[in-house]
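[step 3/7] fold_predict: job queued, chain A
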Amino acid sequence: MGQIKITLKKSPISQKQDQQLTVKSLGLRKLHQSVLVEDSRSVRGMINKVRHLVVVEEEDAPRETQEKA
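[step 4/7] structure written:
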């Protein structure tokens, strides 16, 4: 699978504790911080739980560098 970019857009301070821990387990600590994670069912479940706090973007596969012959 590919990678997805997750950006924290809203503070989890006033949210339930399980949502705060989910944001922390995704690797997000500061507002507007972004992380790249492998796309998996477990990560998608965590994103779904805190979807009101984060923005998710699909990352394209890295392009192969063209070699000059």
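[step 5/7] annotate
Strands lie at 3-8, 34-38, 54-59.
The CA atoms of residues 39 and 54 lie 15 Å apart.
exit 0
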